[in-house]
Design brief:
Layout (H helix, E strand, L loop, with lengths): L1 H24 L2 H4 L9 H9 L7 H8 L5 H7 L10 E4 L2 E5 L3 H18 L8 H9 L7 H17 L6 H14 L3 E4 L27
Antiparallel strand pairs: 1-2, 2-3
Helix pairs in contact: 1-3, 1-6, 3-5, 6-8, 7-8, 8-9
Length: 213
């Protein structure tokens, strides 16, 4: 039962911080509706089952379920602030559409909140940027989305939310998207390392041990 309430409290704290982050970035009303799907029984109860407070229930489910996460599938296909929502498949290729400004900015607010909520004692302004840069090359994002998110997190590291005013992020988004194709076609998988045949043999590398939902 404690996992039920601990996960419920974490979801509430996470949503609150996304909302306050969104208010500072000029998308507060939009972020008020962030992650509502996490309260749906199909998503919530499965997350409770895999909750351990150290890392995401999604990651824990992968370790216990042959790498496949039903939580991730349900959540990312219902929430447009996830880059996975903007991916498609065509004739053996992975296609990544550039995320609209509003959802890409919500994604930034989401990551900042996640970095803080899972481990507030070690949170620093550069933590989320470092987390993103360590993983960005194996995310199926468009070049514009990847550059914009990195730009936002770099601005946050250097200036805090003062660097993420709506007029500034919109201007940067317009400049960045003008330089790149709207859709990136991936001809090869962006793999990190080979996975062991069984998920219970997976050893969590230090680069993935940061506490993140």
């Amino acid at each position: 039962m404690s996992r039920f309430f601990r996960h419920f409290g974490l979801v509430n704290r996470h949503r609150w911080h996304v909302f306050t982050n969104g208010c500072r970035c000029g998308i507060g009303f939009h972020c008020f509706f962030h992650d509502l799907s996490k309260y749906h029984p199909k998503e919530f109860l499965r997350s409770v089952k895999y909750f351990n407070g150290k890392h995401s229930p999604v990651f824990e489910e992968r370790l216990q379920n042959d790498y496949f996460s039903f939580i991730c599938q349900r959540h990312t296909r219902r929430n447009k602030h996830h880059w996975e929502y903007w991916t498609d498949y065509f004739q053996g290729h992975i296609l990544a559409m550039t995320m609209p400004w509003k959802y890409a900015t919500e994604y930034v607010c989401d990551m900042l909140s996640a970095s803080y909520c899972y481990d507030p004692k070690t949170f620093t302004k550069e933590k989320t940027l470092n987390y993103f840069l360590a993983r960005a090359n194996h995310y199926y994002m468009s070049d514009a989305t990847r550059e914009y998110v990195a730009w936002c997190l770099t601005r946050y590291r250097d200036l805090g939310f003062a660097g993420l005013k709506k007029k500034d992020t919109q201007k940067a988004y317009e400049e960045i998207t003008a330089r790149h194709d709207r859709v990136k076609v991936y001809d090869a998988l962006a793999q990190v390392d080979a996975l062991p045949p069984r998920a219970n043999e997976f050893i969590i590398p230090s680069s993935l041990q940061d506490k993140q939902p």
